[in-house]
């Protein structure tokens, strides 16, 4: 197995631990010696796991629906229209205010002194908040499997920052498209 396939497979496997019913994301950080130094998946903060909502916001659902039927500007307009209409208590009961993204958890789980010069393998392109963490940690490369949320405003802001910070964004093209794991031999 090629090392790159192994790193992305580690991110994919990590994602499987997420309890988010709508989306499971994984991240795997690799240093310049090609050693894994941190993995993570999207989860609620420690100790909060069983007490936080996994609901999506109406604004997010409206944006995704608009994106599906029209185009990005309609999706952004949908976010703001519904947000303006949403009482703060409703927003308080969505996952977005609480969930720790896969990239944040991989960074917090690091087993090295720092992450300078590292690459981060992610199953989904990072959002703007995670892009900030990646930049400030001194990483140099983002390798992503999916760019499904390419037109989300958060993804656009992320790309803008990563580009400015001269962090390479590489779409992952696997050598092997399937990795079969058997935990017990027959
Ligand atoms: N790169 C990412 N890493 C992540 O861990 N996430 C997480 C946060 C949420 O749990 C979920 C997004 O929820 P939804 O809006 O697609 O229902 O994925 C999302 C992104 C997208 O930028
Ligand atoms: Zn993020």
Automatic annotation (TrEMBL):
GO terms, biological process: nucleotide biosynthetic process; pyrimidine nucleotide metabolic process
Cofactor requirement: Zn(2+)
Assigned protein family: Belongs to the cytidine and deoxycytidylate deaminase family.
GO molecular function, one term: zinc ion binding
Transmembrane segments: none
Protein residues bound to Zn(2+): 101, 127, 130
Keywords: Hydrolase, Metal-binding, Nucleotide biosynthesis, Zinc
E.C. no: 3.5.4.12
Domain CMP/dCMP-type deaminase: 2-162
Active site: 103
Origin superkingdom: Eukaryota
InterPro entries in alphabetical order: APOBEC/CMP_deaminase_Zn-bd, CMP_dCMP_dom, Cytidine_deaminase-like, dCMP_deaminase, dCMP_deaminase-rel, Deoxycytidylate_deaminase_dom
This protein's name: dCMP deaminase
Group of enzyme by EC: hydrolase
PANTHER family, A to Z: DEOXYCYTIDYLATE DEAMINASE, DEOXYCYTIDYLATE DEAMINASE-RELATED
């Amino acid at each position: 197995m090629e090392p790159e396939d192994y790193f992305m497979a580690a991110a994919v496997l990590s994602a499987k631990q997420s309890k988010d019913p709508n989306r499971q994301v994984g991240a795997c950080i690799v240093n310049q010696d090609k050693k894994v130094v941190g993995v993570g998946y999207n989860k609620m903060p420690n100790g909060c796991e069983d007490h936080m909502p996994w609901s999506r916001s109406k604004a997010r659902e409206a944006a995704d629906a608009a994106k599906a039927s029209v185009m990005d500007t309609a999706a952004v307009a949908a976010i703001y229209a519904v947000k303006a209409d949403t009482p703060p208590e409703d927003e308080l009961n969505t996952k977005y205010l609480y969930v720790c993204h896969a990239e944040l958890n991989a960074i917090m789980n690091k087993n090295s002194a720092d992450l300078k010069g590292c690459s981060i393998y992610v199953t989904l392109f990072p959002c703007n908040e995670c892009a900030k963490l990646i930049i400030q940690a001194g990483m140099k490369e983002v390798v992503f499997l999916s760019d499904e949320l390419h037109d989300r405003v958060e993804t656009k802001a992320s790309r803008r920052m990563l580009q400015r910070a001269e962090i390479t964004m590489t779409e992952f093209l696997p050598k092997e498209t399937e990795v079969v794991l058997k935990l017990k031999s027959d």
